[in-house]
Amino acid sequence: MTVHAPMSRTQAEDFLYDEADLLDGWKLDEWLALCSDDVVYEIPATTLPDGSANSSLFLVPDDRFMLESRVKRLLSRSAHAENPRSRTRRLITNVRVGTTDDGQVALRSSFYVLRFRNDEMHHYVGTYQHRLRPTADGLRITYRRATLDTDSLRHSGGKVSILL
Amino acid sequence: MDETYIVDDPSTSTFRVHRRSMVDDGVLAAERDQIFDQVWLYLGHESEVAAPGDFVTRDVAGRSLVLCRDDAGQVRVWLNSCTHRGASVCREARGHSRFLTCFYHAWSFNLAGELIALPDDAAYGENFDRSVLALVTPPRVDTYRGFVFVSFNASVEPLVDYLAGAREYLDLVCDQSDTDMVILAGTQEYSIKANWKLLVENSIDGYHAMSTHATYMDYLMTAMRKAAEETGYQLGAPDLSGAAFDLGNGHAVIEYNAPWARPVARWLPPLDPALQDPIAARRAELVARYGEERARRICDTSRNLLIFPNLIVNDIMAVTVRAFEPVTPSLMHVRAWELAPLDEDRRLHEVRLDNFLTFLGPGGLATPDDVEALECCQRGFSSWRELPWSDISRGMAQPRPGITDELQMRVFWRRWNELMGGTPQEAAGAARLRVVAER
Q: A9-49+56-118+132-148 sits in which CATH class?
């Protein structure tokens, strides 16, 4: 059965690549502008990739206010883990496009984010789930979940100090 | 231990730690023998294996262990090694099973440790006794209020005696709930490229809060002011008063007032005003059960508790349990869990989860900067030969050291030094030779 896709894979890839470019370029305010007022950004614990932020321990469970605080923090000079800033490279692939019951675009993709700092390389590998709401100003991210494949953060510098 | 690692002279308010203790392979080997193999160590919590058949595997003091609950409901701890030829009997991090089976030769044990099946046992002859080939438990296993500890020293003192004054503080944490405190699903597994003792210091350090965690404090104050404006609530000046205590056997605590809300049972902005009633009800229950003063401590005060050598229970805007192990002198593995009441109001429970992650954990607004700070210290220790001493004397001249002083770290280091066989040394030029206890 073919599900009618609301956008082509190429359009979806363009969106994800543009988003990755903003994050790799530390243009975090511009990235935040892509998020809706009711955005949820979350990263489950590596030991419980299918967990729910309402009942289990996560790594990141942000609402809009927390996400704004995270961006403000990262753009300040007091986010010590990112001062000086790391360089990152986001590779995004295996993009699939679907829809949600409430008319949003649902994307799944694979990511490999490399983080370089202090001459060390840290790896973040996993799956992105995006939900995008069409608005008059374009697509807005309402849900963004990064699920890591690793058992722990021991290959990831022991932390998620960037917007993953 | 031939070297002097600690200079401890209350008469001149001098306390120094030699940085070689943070970088040296020989020191780590001695720590394994004289500390980790001698004392009680936290393994896990009974609630992690709530039902018969539940198990988790976990490394403690370099040993792979299985924590499980047998068919009779008893919590068991097994060395994760087949009594036949040594392979792991459990290769999953957590799960549920009636048996622990070594796949190498298919020897199978029940969760009570009994060897119950092996292929072709007739070949062992008539004197073969399966019971002597049961799984092996660490020399000592005991629990205190759900916290499961092990010791590899058969003659270690009883756990309740070992915990000494730390019991009172574990009680304060556990008394939050009239049912049970449980570990929530999900573990934060991370690592820090730094000596394990730096995380001991950091976890109970009030002095770094305002400098290292300025962005968290900014987030918290912004959230509080925003919510207070919306609800007309009058915020008082932040109160960070408190004290540090020596709890014996190297355990220490800081107990203090803090500017954050606590799901048990302290309402403050930015919590939803609709939560004022359930929190007030929770508080009234605790007052009825424990009296005003103890209930006030349970509800209002925060505490960062070190149970020597490597267990942290921080009862702050939520409760985290954190244990860590050295891998090399400059690398530790860290595990962190969240402890919460089993039967909590669903809304309070969500606040608790939310509160936890704003500050705590490797994706929070604070912990990544702690990781950075500790790794910076470790890099700084590369010059330990030229710059050998760290200063941990803050508050030594105070009659009652506060939470931004360093008494709690000195408590750890004195016990560490004692177990490592070190002789406390006076500072150069000090007249007295006898070391006087600080308190």
A: alpha beta
A76, B188: Cβ pair inside 8 Å?
no
- Say yes or no: A73 contacts chain B, CB-CB below 8 A: yes
Instruction: Say how far apart CA B23 and CA B383 lie, in whole Å.
Output: 10
pLDDT in tens, A107-146: 999 999 999 999 999 999 999 999 999 999 999 999 999 9
- Are the beta carbons of B94 and A47 separated by less than 8 Å? yes
Query: How many domains, in total, are found in chain B?
Result: 2
Q: Is B372 on the interface with A (CB under 8 A)?
A: yes
Q: What is the pLDDT of residues A57-115, one digit of tens each?
A: 999 999 999 999 999 999 999 999 999 999 999 999 999 999 999 999 999 999 999 99
Nearest Cα neighbor of B55 from B92, B96, B89 is: B96
Q: Residues B302-319: what's their mean pLDDT?
A: 96
Confidence (pLDDT) at A5? 65
Same domain, B248 and B150: no
* Token reading at B367: 């912990």
DSSP H stretches of helix in B321-432: 346-359, 367-380, 407-419
A vs B: CB pairs below 8 A: 125
Of A54, A69, A158, the CB nearest to B191: A158
Query: What's the confidence (pLDDT) of residue B164?
Result: 98
Give yes or no for residue B424 having a pLDDT over 90: no
Q: Do A81 and B368 touch (CB under 8 A)?
A: yes
In a domain, B437, yes or no: no
Higher per-residue pLDDT: B411 or B274: B411
Q: Which chain B residue has its CA at the smallest distance from A162's CA?
A: B363
Q: A19 to chain B, minimum CA–CA distance in Å?
A: 20
- Residue B130 lies in domain: 41-155
Q: Amino acid identity, residue A108?
A: R
Give yes or no: residues B229 and B350 share one domain: yes
Torsion angle in degrees (nearest 10) through CA of B92, B97, B99, B105: -40
Give the mean model confidence (pLDDT) for residues B229-250. Answer: 88
Q: Per 3-state DSSP, what percentage of chain A is helix, strand, and coil (rounded to 5)? A: 20, 40, 35
Which residues from B are below 8 Å from A156, CB to CB?
190
State the pTM of this model. Answer: 0.93
85-104 of A, contacting B, C-beta below 8 A: none
How does pLDDT run across B31-42, given as a tens digit for each residue?
A: 999 999 999 999
- Separation between Cα atoms, residue B395 and residue B355, nearest integer Å: 31
- Cβ atoms of B269 and B224 within 8 Å: the answer is yes
pLDDT, greater one: B423 or B218? B218
Within a 13 Å sphere around the CA of B40, how many CA atoms are in the beta-carbon half? 24
pLDDT band at residue B239 under the 50/70/90 scheme: confident
Q: Who contacts B230 (Cβ-Cβ below 8 Å, separation ≥6)?
A: none
Write the ipTM: 0.90
Same-domain check for residues B73 and B193: no
pLDDT above 60: residue B47: yes
Whether the CB of B218 is below 8 Å from some CB of chain A: the reply is: yes
Whether residue A58 and residue B338 make contact (CB cut-off 8 A), yes or no, is: no
Residue A126: CB partners within 8 Å, gap ≥ 6? A110, A111, A146, A147, A148, A149, A150
Residues B259 and B355 in one domain: yes
